[in-house]
Backbone:
């Protein structure tokens, strides 16, 4: 008797909880769809060739985002160029030389924390060590700030990917008389190449939308500039400035800039997945 | 070169031996150089963290010396009289993160359960990938959406509703005291919730997938309902990992800058009502740093950054330890 009652009760609570889970899925995904929908709608309505050919305008007039896009490309590119080699080398040490050493354990732990540390703190750090020393804001400081964010991402994926390379491969190479650094560079890197590229792509995706570290390192620039030693505009910072302004033209451009960043980030993430999927086959 | 050295039976053995020795020496040197290069890079990661801490402490020192412990207990933030206290930003950071976690944790876990236990297999991969892609969208996108779409929406719908519903209940009436500004602590918390949602979802889904199918099948075999399997098998097995994932999400929420800065209102005060504007540590830094005049002002902002770093470091370290414990448990 009691068993039958409790069975009905169990079925009911199962139904309620599973219903709630489903509702959570619908609820959560709805918000995300709404955000992307608004972004596409607002962004595409402001998209024109002028966005890619003209510089950021003074308030109240039409213009584009050319200097911001160029600035973002330069600083992201430089940040990745600085950060990637360091990240790959550190990941190599942890996976190849010191797999079980104490240094690797500590670095792994610290790296994981740096991976999700607040990016605005990175901005403050670079402000302290570069901007104050140099005496002015500069694109190079912005790039280094981005590099600090690139490093943990690349370290993590490099280590993970090198750990996936089967040991017999290394042993076979060593048996042929290859020195250790040849084994790593010619065998392990080659076997893990796609995964490492994925890591770099993810790192680019991560930094291309970063705003906080650039606010007080590269600052902003109303004009086109390729001078690494001076302030430089970047898409995220321009979006930040324009969105909070009272001018309709600027707000429109902020939406368009947001769309460009989102599309770039999504493209990079999908590309990274494609590269990663190809290796697993 | 290597195969020449390995073949000693050819003419002029002495010359070959020299050749071989020099090649081997070259190998050894190359090995040594590469080893030290990688080790140096690994050490650089540690130096980076140390550098962040040292730079922040050095920058914060003037403010900490001037205000002492009062820096974290004082509410005043007055650039004119140069009196700075961090209580309002700390309060705002904690409250917005709390609101975010209250919403994002149950919903995120719900989606993760849906994805691992209920979802038709055809939809599982696309939804999973969509969630992961959304986790990578820059936070400034959430911020701009919050400012232009979400805040006006809340101002017209949710906030008047909350004010009228809770207006006559003693304690809650002050928590939801009007007027509806649109922007404010609640809005910031909700935006944060939406932002960390994909993050918590994808981690807890990964964690749920570590449960060995045998365990679940055994539970289903003795007649458990789906919910009972989740409650009695999946969640106990993955508890540590779920806590780790939630803490990672919390670390994100605490340190988030752009999503919050747009909608928090940047008001240095602690109000009982969560509908009023407030500020968070990161929003204060982002809004005021480039305009800060005077060493003490700048130093106080850096001290805020130091506080934020210490708080998130503790949370993230705890999260990583939890996730490491899950990994060890799997390794057994």
Residues:
């Amino acid at each position: 008797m009691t068993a039958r009652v409790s069975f009905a009760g169990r079925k009911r609570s199962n139904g309620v909880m599973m219903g709630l889970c489903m509702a959570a899925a619908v609820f959560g995904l709805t918000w995300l769809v709404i955000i992307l929908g608004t972004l596409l709608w607002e962004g595409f309505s402001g998209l024109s060739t002028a966005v890619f050919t003209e510089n950021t305008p003074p308030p109240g007039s039409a213009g584009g985002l050319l200097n911001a896009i160029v600035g973002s490309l330069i600083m992201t590119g430089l940040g990745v160029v600085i950060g990637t080699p360091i990240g790959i080398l550190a990941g190599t040490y942890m996976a190849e030389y010191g797999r079980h050493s104490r240094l690797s354990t500590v670095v792994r732990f610290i790296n994981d924390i740096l991976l999700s540390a607040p990016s605005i703190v990175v901005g403050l750090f670079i402000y302290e060590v570069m901007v104050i020393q140099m005496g002015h804001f500069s694109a190079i400081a912005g790039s280094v700030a981005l590099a600090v964010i690139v490093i943990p991402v690349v370290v993590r994926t490099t280590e993970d990917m090198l750990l996936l390379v089967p040991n017999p491969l290394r042993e076979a190479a060593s048996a042929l008389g290859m020195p250790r650094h040849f084994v790593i560079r010619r065998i392990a890197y080659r076997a893990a190449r796609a995964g490492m590229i994925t890591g770099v792509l993810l790192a680019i995706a991560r930094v291309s939308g970063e705003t906080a570290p650039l606010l007080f390192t590269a600052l902003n620039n109303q004009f086109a500039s390729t001078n690494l030693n001076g302030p430089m505009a970047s898409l995220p910072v321009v979006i930040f400035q324009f969105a909070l302004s009272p001018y309709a033209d600027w707000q429109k451009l902020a939406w368009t800039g947001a769309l460009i960043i989102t599309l770039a980030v999504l493209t990079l993430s999908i590309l990274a997945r494609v590269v990663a999927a190809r290796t697993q086959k | 070169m290597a195969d020449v050295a390995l073949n000693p039976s050819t003419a002029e053995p002495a010359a070959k031996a020299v050749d071989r020795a020099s090649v081997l020496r070259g190998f050894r040197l190359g090995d040594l150089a590469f080893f030290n290069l990688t080790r140096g890079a690994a050490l650089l990661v540690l130096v980076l963290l140390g550098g962040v801490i040292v730079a922040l402490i050095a920058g914060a020192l003037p403010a900490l010396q001037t205000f002492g412990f009062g820096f974290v207990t004082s509410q005043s933030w007055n650039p004119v009289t140069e009196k700075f206290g961090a209580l309002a930003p700390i309060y705002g950071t904690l409250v917005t993160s709390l609101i975010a976690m209250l919403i994002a944790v149950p919903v995120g876990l719900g989606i993760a359960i849906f994805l691992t236990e209920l979802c038709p297999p055809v939809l599982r991969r696309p939804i999973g990938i969509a969630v992961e892609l959304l986790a990578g969208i820059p936070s400034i996108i959430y911020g701009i959406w919050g400012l232009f779409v979400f805040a006006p929406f809340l101002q017209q719908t949710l906030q008047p509703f909350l004010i009228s519903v809770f207006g006559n209940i003693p304690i809650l009436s002050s928590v939801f005291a009007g007027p509806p500004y649109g922007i404010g602590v609640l809005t910031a918390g909700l935006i944060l919730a939406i932002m960390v949602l994909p993050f918590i979802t994808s981690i807890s889904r990964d964690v749920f997938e570590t449960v060995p199918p045998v365990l679940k099948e055994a539970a289903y075999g003795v007649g458990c309902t789906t919910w009972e399997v989740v409650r009695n098998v999946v969640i106990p097995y993955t508890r540590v990992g779920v806590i780790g994932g939630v803490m990672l999400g919390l670390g994100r929420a605490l340190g988030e800058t752009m999503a919050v800065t747009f909608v928090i209102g940047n008001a240095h005060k602690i109000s009982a009502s969560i509908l009023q504007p407030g500020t968070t540590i990161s929003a204060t830094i982002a809004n005021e740093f480039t305009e800060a005049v005077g060493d003490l002002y700048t130093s106080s902002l850096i001290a805020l950054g130091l506080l934020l770093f210490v708080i998130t470091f503790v949370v993230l370290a705890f999260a990583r330890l939890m996730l490491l414990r899950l990994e060890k448990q799997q390794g057994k």
Summary: The beta strands of chain B are 77-78, 83-84. The CA atoms of residues 97 and 253 of chain B lie 6 Å apart.
